[in-house]
């Protein structure tokens, strides 16, 4: 069985850069017609142009995952065989003094946003009588704690449990829902931090003693999104160089 998504349509949220843009290319290269979304579609122009230059089918839409009306409006017009709930914010903050508004913002984006997109995605598939695959990008910080990230950790843990609840409810419609939990993956945004003393200390606690590369998420993403994973639902797949089992 090849990890192939030919003939399928896929929506990726938060796709203007980082992992979202990467996931869009991975799915496009595996044959999907990809729709990239971001709060401002103009920010997607370069990424979609690059994909088209490579011969892939790609378009772009505006989508703020926290805006319920926009989410519903998008899925009222279209259904997607694959939905990648990637948009997220880290919202650093200590539990002792994090303003409630900042806490709310993280939960609103990471948890409520993923809920809205998955719900609308599943409703559209159900209305079209089609099966589908939803991949919620959680984090190993949904399964273990990380200092100074109280809201992020809480949001990702909730995404993991929400994924299981959705999988249980939507299996009867042929809709699979899984959580992909990346460990520490090197992206342009965090590259600088991982050169610092605390960043290097963190890397030393990963059993494989290095950060993950974006490309090392590809197999897991495609397994969960494609028919190769047709009997996988409600699972949590960590790609973390052994971080979860290190206990550190
Ligand atoms: P990133 O900041 O580069 O990407 C997040 C994207 O989400 C950005 O494009 C941002 O504009 C978008 N976004 C934020 N709020 C949004 C909203 N309301 N509506 C639509 N889009 C919105 O970070 P990344 O590292 O590429 O992370 C992508 C996902 O992977 C996130 O969910 C993150 O929590 C998760 N993750 C990343 C790592 C890592 O090491 N990079 C590890 C574990 C989990």
TrEMBL record:
<dbReference type="InterPro" id="IPR020904">
    <property type="entry name" value="Sc_DH/Rdtase_CS"/>
</dbReference>
<protein>
    <submittedName>
        <fullName>SDR family oxidoreductase</fullName>
    </submittedName>
</protein>
<comment type="similarity">
    <text>Belongs to the short-chain dehydrogenases/reductases (SDR) family.</text>
</comment>
<keyword id="KW-0560">Oxidoreductase</keyword>
<dbReference type="InterPro" id="IPR036291">
    <property type="entry name" value="NAD(P)-bd_dom_sf"/>
</dbReference>
<dbReference type="GO" id="GO:0016616">
    <property type="term" value="F:oxidoreductase activity, acting on the CH-OH group of donors, NAD or NADP as acceptor"/>
</dbReference>
<dbReference type="Pfam" id="PF13561">
    <property type="entry name" value="adh_short_C2"/>
</dbReference>
<dbReference type="InterPro" id="IPR002347">
    <property type="entry name" value="SDR_fam"/>
</dbReference>
């Amino acid at each position: 069985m090849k990890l192939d998504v030919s003939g399928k349509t896929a929506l990726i949220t938060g796709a203007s850069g980082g992992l979202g843009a990467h996931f869009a290319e991975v799915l496009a290269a595996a044959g999907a017609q990809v729709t990239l979304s971001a709060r401002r579609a103009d920010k997607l122009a370069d990424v979609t142009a690059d994909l088209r230059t490579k011969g892939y089918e790609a378009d772009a839409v505006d989508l703020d995952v926290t805006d319920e009306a926009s989410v519903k409006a998008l899925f009222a017009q279209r259904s997607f065989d694959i939905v990648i709930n990637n948009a997220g914010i880290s919202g650093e903050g200590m539990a002792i003094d994090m303003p409630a508004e900042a806490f709310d913002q993280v939960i609103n984006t990471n948890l409520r946003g993923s809920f809205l997109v998955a719900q609308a995605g599943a409703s559209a598939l159900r209305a079209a009588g089609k099966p589908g695959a939803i991949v919620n990008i959680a984090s190993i910080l949904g399964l273990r704690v990380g200092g100074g990230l109280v809201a992020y950790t809480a949001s990702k843990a909730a995404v993991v449990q929400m994924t299981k609840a959705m999988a249980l409810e939507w299996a009867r419609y042929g809709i699979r829902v899984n959580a992909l939990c990346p460990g520490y993956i090197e992206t342009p945004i965090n590259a600088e931090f991982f050169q610092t003393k605390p960043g290097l200390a963190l890397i030393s606690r990963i059993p494989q003693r290095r950060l993950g590369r974006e490309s090392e998420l590809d197999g897991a993403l495609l397994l969960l999104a494609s028919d190769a994973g047709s009997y996988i639902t409600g699972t949590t797949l960590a790609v973390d160089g052994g971080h979860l089992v290190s206990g550190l």
